[in-house]
Amino acid sequence: MAKPFLLGVLGGMGPLATLDFQQKLLDATPADSDQQQLPSVVWNVPQVADRQKALAGRGPSPLPQLLLGIEKLNQAGVSHIVIPCNTAHHWFDELSYASAAPLLHIVDATLEGLVALPQKPQRVGLVATQGTLDAGWYQRALAQKGMEVLLPTADELQQWFVPGCYAVKRGALREGGELLSLQAQALLARGAEQLLLACTEVPLALRTVAAPFLSLTHDPAQLLAQRCAEIWLEYRHSYFPHTQSNNWNK
Amino acid sequence: MAKPFLLGVLGGMGPLATLDFQQKLLDATPADSDQQQLPSVVWNVPQVADRQKALAGRGPSPLPQLLLGIEKLNQAGVSHIVIPCNTAHHWFDELSYASAAPLLHIVDATLEGLVALPQKPQRVGLVATQGTLDAGWYQRALAQKGMEVLLPTADELQQWFVPGCYAVKRGALREGGELLSLQAQALLARGAEQLLLACTEVPLALRTVAAPFLSLTHDPAQLLAQRCAEIWLEYRHSYFPHTQSNNWNK
């Protein structure tokens, strides 16, 4: 028998995005009872140095605190680890190297999800932190699959994205949603057909303002949750085939 | 310096109630940044034998799985543990005994919250599982504080409470909310002035049907979250007095 499935979530970046990701895991998992739901351990410790500031050279590295989370999740016996924070993927290689459990990359899950769409988007606007934009993961992956990418300008980031993102982190979801909505609309106005909301604070803020363009967006956190649910369902089906309706543990 | 504050949440019972509890922790914590939010580790493993069936003598005990969660949370370094499931408090003593970190009891937090109200309720209707009702914790604690308690009848539980509760567990929140709403209204009709929603599935289901009597209810999970937030704020204030606005980690 393979190592029992147990998802490790390296969260806290931010804590609300970590909750939103857990909701997405539930939504992505068909289940008739508690016992059929995906098991997880969530390290939701937000005392991690600011990722955006660290990458801008204006603050300490979050790596030591992220490594602590990876260590604790491994001790808890997790079989896989995910990080519901795009920017933190800057440290993905170091964290993978330190982890016995494999880490699933949010960009891989996103691209798998996008190419599986009935109509693959052609021109994708990327809503993300400067750190994620500088890393170039999404740009390279989208280009490889033949999709064109539109990026926020430095002015847009400073005026809308950054303050929107920090508004979410202090719980001002509506204010954040309004600012992030302006960022999203700017990309659409410049020709993006669809948007990739590649910062886990963004979708939850846009929801609160019921942004009219939400149907044109893709959410990497949701695509990552979907990938986790697929792995869990495969495991559940192999090892608990009798639990297809309400009789787990009976 | 005291052991660093880190809340352990023994969750999974059910997984949606565990999420709801985490949302309540966020709501109960004033914070200007990610870093000011309460740190937690959440063992959200729903593969725990059914508590209601175990207490009715119709299924295996969940104790071994609960003890595993307690062990893993302690290994992760938690300073306190809470269980956002009233029924699981049946095993509170065994779990406390096995845990280095103290467990906070949901009934204690609830009573502290109720007696601190400007107007203490006189006649309280108790919405809870048969297991919680049989245990008598809430009845004794409320009586000690001079409050009268009204209980659901066996018929009401069978007709409304139990199917409502299991509806929530399979994600049918609205259906659950309608059934649980009937249970709540029956208690109000028999003279309860206020209701104690002493099963963590209940408040989240009633919210979805926008039950008109919600202002008359008290939610033990919320009162427990409030208690946790108080402990965190005291710790944060003692050890991080400079983090009162947006400058943690700067």
UniProtKB/TrEMBL annotation, chains A, B:
Annotated Pfam families: Asp_Glu_race
Keyword set includes Metal-binding: no
Keywords, sorted A to Z: Isomerase
Domain of life where this protein originates: Bacteria
Membrane-spanning parts: none
GO terms for MF: amino-acid racemase activity
The UniProt record lists the keyword Membrane: no
Family: Belongs to the aspartate/glutamate racemases family.
PANTHER family assigned: ASPARTATE-GLUTAMATE RACEMASE FAMILY, GLUTAMATE RACEMASE
Protein name: Aspartate racemase
Organism: Kosakonia oryzendophytica
High-level lineage: Bacteria, Pseudomonadati, Pseudomonadota, Gammaproteobacteria, Enterobacterales
